[in-house]
Amino acid sequence: MTDPEDLRQWFCTEVLPLEAPLMRYLRRGRIGESEAADIRQDIYEHALKGAMHELPDHTKAYVFTIARNLLINRARRARVVSLEFMAPSDLPIDDDPDMLTPERYADARAELSRAHAGMERLPPRCREVIRLRKIEGLSTRDVAQRLNVGIDAVEQQLTLGMRALVDFMLGGEGKIRRRRYSDRKVGARLK
What is 110-180's CATH topology? Predict the structure, then answer.
């Protein structure tokens, strides 16, 4: 168990100076300022709880690992919006007056339309894997069982499909790019 004074000293001298790079790291994930501040506090809390048992040898790596893990967990909890278009009466009512501005509604519909078009460009198996995994929220194992394929095949299809979909959403062609067999052999020899 770490002495409380040593813990306070460690936090003040080694963790708090990391605030600026930590906030830059959080903002790179397109997180708003207030949400980044909340996540920063969660990071501090996790860091302190972990350091109560033993102070880490490499504080910066420790703090940024906590940050990465919290962001991964946050992304896992995020819900993916269905690719079905919502009628205006289906929109959720919110107290935020900016929530339902015509511009935001038009932007959201355009992004949803682009995502739908990107999904339609994918090969059928890849599109089905993404639909089951990301939209319906099935586990990789459940998708593999439903499609009667291996877990590795599901993971590969998901990776290729998501890369193509992101490429399309960012203005690219959205094509599946597979490594050539000769590239794989060269890459394997380099490792």
Answer: Arc Repressor Mutant, subunit A (1.10.10)
Domain ranges of the chain: 4-77, 110-180
What pLDDT, in 10s, does the model give residues 90-146?
Answer: 444 445 555 556 777 677 788 888 888 888 988 999 999 998 988 888 888 999 999
Q: For residues 176 and 160, is the Cβ–Cβ distance under 8 A?
A: yes
Cα-trace Rg, the chain: 22
**Residue 176 confidence (pLDDT):** 79
The Cα 154–Cα 146 span in angstroms is: 11
Concatenate the DSSP letters of all residues of 88-150 into one string: GGGSPP-S-TTTT-HHHHHHHHHHHHHHHHHHHHS-HHHHHHHIIIIIS---HHHHHHHHT--
Sign of CA dihedral 11, 14, 17, 22: negative
Which residues lie below 8 Å from residue 91, measured CB to CB, with a gap of 6+?
100, 105
Q: Average pLDDT for residues 160-180, to the nearest whole number? A: 80
Those residues with Cβ within 8 angstroms of residue 150's Cβ, 6 or more apart along the chain or in another chain: 144
pLDDT tens readout for residues 2-43:
888 988 899 999 999 999 898 888 888 777 777 888 899 999
